[in-house]
Amino acid sequence: MFPDGAFGRYLYKRGVLLKDAGKFFEGETEALIQHAKATAEQAGRPYRYLDSAHTHASGQSKEAMARAIAEQDGITFERSDHKIVWVSDFDATAKLAEQFKHMEWPTFLIRQVAAVNPCVFHGKLDTNSTANWTVIC
């Protein structure tokens, strides 16, 4: 999951001894959970914790659950090979996409990561970062 030595370098940069890593990550996890709950509440959206890729009670995947929530909100789309190939409101989608033409993507993505996970930048936002990005759809 991590390149050789990356985990140790991360802990070192954060000033955490290996023997304290468990408590450190418990604190990071709690901060992330509280941030997610507050973000959902501010947006008037439900907070749902899913502890695995499939919920055992329903047998439904996270994506299926997200699609069901989107449908309840009147948002419909189709995907193929990780691309959105159809949307219910093309004009609104085109207007939104037009805003992205001149986007400073690294700065934008770093801010998105910081908004979703406040633990990542530890209060400092490095917009000159050359981070590797993985987009999960």
Topology:
Blueprint: H1 6-14, H2 21-43, H3 62-72, E1 77-80, E2 83-87, H4 90-99, H5 105-116
Antiparallel strand pairs: 1-2
Report on the structure:
It is a single chain. 47% of the residues lie in helices and 7% in strands. By secondary structure, it is mainly α. A two-stranded antiparallel ribbon has the order 1-2.
List keywords for this structure.
mainly alpha; two-stranded antiparallel sheet; 5 helices; 47% helix; disordered C terminus
Q: How would you summarize what this structure contains?
A:
The chain is mainly alpha-helical. Helix content is 47%, strand content 7%.
Name the strands of the widest sheet in spatial order: 1-2
Q: What gross morphology would you assign?
A: extended
Given the helix and strand composition, which structural class is it?
Answer: mainly alpha
End-to-end distance:
19 Å
Give a count of the beta strands, DSSP E runs of length 2 or more: 2
Number of helices: 5
Report the radius of gyration as a whole number of Å. Answer: 18 Å
